[in-house]
Design brief:
single chain; 139 residues
C-alpha cells in the first residue's frame, strides 16, 4: 500500500508540475486562472487517486441503488450521497483485496440523521457493491 500511495503522490506532483509549467512567463499583474485538465490528464489523476470522474447519469443510478436498499441512506441528499460514493470508490481502489475494510469504511461513511453511528455490515456491503457497480466499475 505504501508503494501505491507514493506512486499516487508522485503522479499528482508530476501533473501539478506539468500544469504549472503551462502558465508561461507572463509579467502581467493579474492572476491567471489554472489551465483545464484534458481528458487524458483527468484519467491519469483519477487512476492515481482512485477518485472516479462520474457522470450525472452514473450518480443518479447510484442514488437510485441506495434508495432501493434504504431511502434513508441518501436521505434526500443526492449530491452528498454521490460524493460519499466517490469516496467509497477511493476506498475500493486503495484496498482492492480487503473487503472487510471496504465494508467497514462504507458503514462509517454513510451516516444519516437516523443512523448517526453508521450502517450495519450487511447494509454497508450493499452500499459498497452499489458504488463499485455504478461509480467505479473499473476498480
Amino acid at each position: 500500500m505504501c508503494t501505491r500511495t507514493t506512486s499516487a503522490v508522485i503522479a499528482a506532483g508530476l501533473l501539478l508540475a506539468t500544469l504549472t509549467a503551462c502558465g508561461g512567463n507572463s509579467t502581467e499583474s493579474k492572476p491567471s486562472s489554472p489551465p483545464s485538465l484534458t481528458a487524458e490528464q483527468r484519467a491519469s489523476v483519477n487512476a492515481a487517486t482512485g477518485l472516479p470522474d462520474t457522470t450525472p447519469e452514473q450518480e443518479a443510478a447510484f442514488v437510485a441503488a441506495l434508495d432501493s436498499i434504504d431511502k434513508d441512506i441518501a436521505h434526500g441528499k443526492a449530491d452528498k450521497a454521490a460524493g460519499r460514493g466517490r469516496s467509497q470508490c477511493q476506498t475500493i481502489h486503495n484496498w482492492p483485496d480487503d473487503m472487510e475494510k471496504q465494508v467497514d469504511l462504507a458503514a462509517q461513511r454513510f451516516t444519516s440523521p437516523t443512523h448517526p453511528e453508521g450502517r450495519t455490515p450487511e447494509t454497508a456491503a450493499k452500499i459498497n457493491a452499489a458504488a463499485h457497480a455504478h461509480l467505479c466499475p473499473a476498480f
